[in-house]
């Protein structure tokens, strides 16, 4: 198979984009780990992350991260099979539940990050 | 009997890595975007106050044992997911060595190393407190 097979169809390209999304997300989490580590260096050496380069990097990572969330949570409707009273729950309901959980989790995590900043 | 035993070994490891991959995928999907949005964009731009914008508040949040546990779960599962995905991504790009046992050791071993580093950082950075 030619190396550039994934550039020939939009569907294949999006598939590879989804696979690639792990790379920027991994880089961002390594940054987060570094950010946690820096908290141990003392107040005098700590400087908050505010550079334009970092914000630009995060914007790119957010785009990949949202794409991962959208595709992965949508996949749940295909993979998860649950029966209630012998009736299978429709995939649409499962996907809607996953997206609602995503929204709820984002609110909780966001609240904690904000609450501790006061 | 012995053949059955031998055959069950790769299946069990497959089951484990698929479990880690799937859980990592869900955890990353549910939790990562809000971290990137707040800590990577809105906080640095000064549009929202976020804990890591000040030393005191960042150490306070990191000192909470539940936060430490949460960060460990997030980072550990995410990296097992990434290890699996990047391995298959490289294979799809034509690097078939990415599916070898050696590559498995490197990628999943990398996830284990990141997990151990995370544990070390979380335990040595901010002193634990429930306040």
Determine the most extensive contact between two protein chains: A-B, 55 and 59 residues
Contiguous low-pLDDT stretches of chain A (5 residues minimum) are none
Question: Kindly, what is the distance between the CA atoms of the first and last residues of chain B, rounded to a whole number of angstroms?
Answer: 57 Å
Count of helical regions of chain B: 4
Give the end-to-end Cα distance of chain A, rounded to a whole number of Å: 56 Å
Describe the protein.
The complex is a heterodimer of chains A (118) and B (131). Chain A is mostly helical and 118 residues long. Chain A contains 4 helices and 2 strands. In chain A, strands 1-2 form a two-stranded antiparallel ribbon. In chain A, a hairpin with a 2-residue loop joins strand 1 (83-84) and strand 2. The longest helix of chain A has 28 residues, at 52-79. Chain A is flat, with a radius of gyration of 19 Å. Chain A starts with 9 loop residues before the first helix and ends with a helix. The model of chain A has no long low-confidence stretch (mean pLDDT 91). Chain B is mainly alpha-helical. Chain B is 78% helix and 0% strand. Chain B is built from 4 helices and no strands. Chain B has helices at 2-42, 55-63, 65-92, 101-124. In chain B, helix 1 (2-42) crosses helix 3 and helix 3 (65-92) runs antiparallel to helix 4. Chain B is elongated. The chains are: A mainly alpha (118), B mainly alpha (131).
Key terms:
heterodimer; A: 118 residues; mainly alpha; two-stranded antiparallel ribbon; 4 helices; 2 strands; 3% strand; B: 131 residues; 0% strand
Question: Quick recap of the structure?
Answer:
Chain A has four helices and two strands, in the order H-H-H-E-E-H. Chain A has 118 residues and is mostly helical.
